[in-house]
Write a structure and sequence with these properties.
five-stranded mixed sheet, homodimer, 16 strands, alpha+beta
Chain lengths: ~450, ~450
């Protein structure tokens, strides 16, 4: 039998895993430093927890788990012969795989609310599953790395997320632009032009400004049924230019009559006032076309774009006011952010930014050529390991070439050779693999080298 | 809607997660130090990869994933109305959740054999899923932490695994006994007494020696249909006492006529010769009753028992000669070991062995009482973070009591208070939460404290 891997899933070899761990370690370290605490939720959730939370399309993309045991026993002839897959699923599946980390987190907060100290700063790094059609860069199993704060309206947290983003990408060496918007400003715009349901059309059109020009955008807005009067009012927004404060000043004029719009502007001003004192390495830019998860976010909307690679958004987030409401706990505001580990991997790979150490194998591999040689090496090997140095021994007295091939293939840094001469003189010959230089060392000398 | 968690699964709160991470970090560090390299395989595997690998019971315990889309469309009336859940499963499910890490690892080795340098030392720390009836200490989702070497027959690796076990449990502070057996000795015993199929009955009976005595064991063996002559031959084995070498000497006499039995003894002697020079902190004891995964292991069998807690085996492993044979790659011998993270957690908890640092929150939380105080604290906060110190600020100018409650609940080590006096004197009042002592510090003094 020739084995196969499930469509849209991946094996991670040691080399890829080492790179992935580098990414996870940087992100985890940033999360820790900012006071976020790790939780984990089960991969398997009740379908009642998941269904209806991701739209109709999301319901289809959930992986459902067949009930154990005799699941078909109690189905009626009618239910069976109808062959209605959706109805049947409800009868034979009670559980599904996590689709994201946000809904399970909301469930977690509601179920553990008595144990949690609010504001609750949590991070979570776990895989999620979606039955999407697999394609380049899109997988059916992938990791999300989320940080959220729930139980506080403080806009300090928006600023803190931006600082974390800046911190992480600076450490990765990836230059980014951090884009910032506010759902309340978008609501204000639709309020002002009297087209509350056209917000998506408007942001989609604005987004095309660079491509199709002002006339093109105006034409597109007309085809969407937006009135000439409304389009007139939109002009200053379509033409929004200048630095963040200039943009906000323009918006203040346009949205002067919209309470919610002004609230959004004030929020952005407060967030900017915090981050402007933070000496960020990357720029923060207000971008009204940013509307990810429109129905979900209620305040800040955040997105990160890599500057040196054409890859789209590599991370994003925002504020939501009623995450836990779906599970009966109202009034818990939250703000959160998700690092896109797979996209970050691709960017680091393309820009050749993974640190060289990431791929290093053990520090020392011992090579011996008979049983006596192996016995000779064992105390040396153990001495290194007990000092915390990664070390191994080639497990048989094989020919030098074979042992060196293994050392090369596993990126060993140094090979410690124990031939007859070395054993006689109580030394090993330490060969640095990257340079080929050799040096005879006593155990004491070897230990002091690492 | 009141949310629920799926039966047999768990949420891990920050406090529990911190303890779990402590365990995973120790194990991961030991694996690294011994030259094992991490891989990951997908949670979802083809059912064809998983079915038939864990026995009939295992097939039932696999979580199966319903095919996406219109899975019922092509089922015939007959197939539907038969209501045969097993047959229907084959028609409507192609994928399942990983049941252990071993079978996916075998698949991995076969699929990646051209890229792998053998001997391949891999470790893997990932969850597995089993539709077991949940009970105390048994979950439907749990982590396995496996290290295996494939592609070498060298018994050095058996010794290396034993050293790793000793290393890890020494660091945990858990006193253990490492039990050692060899499948070939068990085969030799059944060969000698002419009852090849009775090995399980014999080991089960020997295992009861302490409880029911020699006469009881003899009686039980008789009821299993083992001849008087065979029971006579078994006497020296039932009475096996002394240190490891005394036991092996007795076995040499009993198994003198069994080639495979003598091979097993020679293997154990070689493994012991390596570990006897290693100055282990824990004892290694030959135990013939050890027969875990009898059909699976072909050489060494290993198990770890905690000495100070009655909890059964907390880790185990052994050598298998044909793991990848099921996927068409013959002749790849391997030896591996799995740390039982959940059991280790329970032992550490019962013996109160988790290090105190495990539960510590951020090093410093800043407390301010108005907007000016918050603005005053931000540069201090950022200075600590950029030094790698975990720090946060209470996000609103709340009353002291509320802020202190949060600090206590999240195990903050120090609270840095910025009231009017502190702002005037360019200091913060640093309060150590465990002692209550306070000290006014400048930014420079604060940074040098950490």
């Amino acid at each position: 039998m020739k084995p196969n891997i499930a469509k849209g899933t991946r094996d991670f070899t040691p080399a890829v895993m080492a790179k992935r761990n580098y990414i996870f370690n940087v992100i985890r370290d940033v999360f820790h430093r900012y006071g976020f605490k790790q939780i984990e939720t089960p991969s398997i959730e009740q379908l009642s927890t998941l269904m209806g939370k991701y739209g109709e399309e999301g319901d289809k993309l959930l992986f459902k788990i067949l009930n154990s045991g005799d699941f078909a026993a109690n189905l009626t002839d009618e239910q069976l012969l109808e062959r209605n897959s959706i109805k049947l699923t409800n009868k034979i599946c009670e559980k599904g795989l996590r689709y994201d980390l946000t809904v399970p987190f909301a469930r977690f907060v509601v179920m553990h609310r008595e144990e949690i100290a609010f504001p609750f700063k949590r991070f979570q790094m776990q895989p999620v599953w979606r039955a999407d059609r697999p394609q380049k860069g899109r997988y059916r199993e992938f990791y999300q790395c989320d940080a959220d704060v729930v139980g506080s309206n403080s806009l300090l947290y928006e600023a803190e997320l931006i600082e974390m983003i800046d911190d992480a990408f600076t450490r990765f060496g990836i230059r980014v632009e951090i884009k910032l918007n506010n759902r309340k400003i978008l609501s204000g715009i639709s309020e002002i032009i009297g087209e509350a349901d056209k917000i998506t059309d408007i942001t989609v059109a604005i987004d095309k400004l660079e491509k199709i020009g002002l006339d093109g955008v105006t034409a597109e807005l007309k085809t969407k049924g937006i009135s000439d009067e409304a389009i007139d009012k939109l002009q200053p927004i379509l033409n929004l230019t200048g630095n963040n404060h200039e943009k906000l000043n323009t918006l203040k004029t346009v949205l002067a009559e919209s309470e919610i719009g002004l609230k959004g502007i004030a929020e952005l001003e407060e967030v900017l006032s915090y981050v402007e004192t933070a000496n960020l390495h990357n720029s923060v830019a207000i971008d009204l076309t940013l509307a990810r998860g429109l129905n979900y976010y209620t305040g800040a909307i955040l997105e990160v774009k890599a500057l040196d690679v054409a890859i789209g958004s590599i991370s994003g987030g925002g504020r939501y006011d009623n995450l836990t409401g779906i599970f009966g706990l109202e009034g818990v505001s939250g703000v959160g952010f998700s690092f896109g580990a797979d996209r970050i991997y691709d960017v680091l790979e393309q820009l050749n930014l993974f640190p060289a150490e990431t791929l290093e194998g053990v520090a020392v591999m011992f090579a011996a050529f008979d049983a006596a040689g192996i016995a000779y090496c064992l105390p040396w090997l153990r001495a290194l390991r007990s000092k915390g140095i990664a070390a191994e021994i080639y497990p048989e007295p094989a020919k030098m070439k074979k042992q060196m091939n293994y050392a090369n293939a596993t990126n060993v840094r140094f090979v410690a050779i124990a031939g007859d001469n070395e054993m006689l003189s109580n030394t090993v010959m330490l060969k640095e693999m990257s340079t080929g230089t050799q040096e005879a060392l006593t155990l004491e000398q070897l230990l002091s080298r690492f």
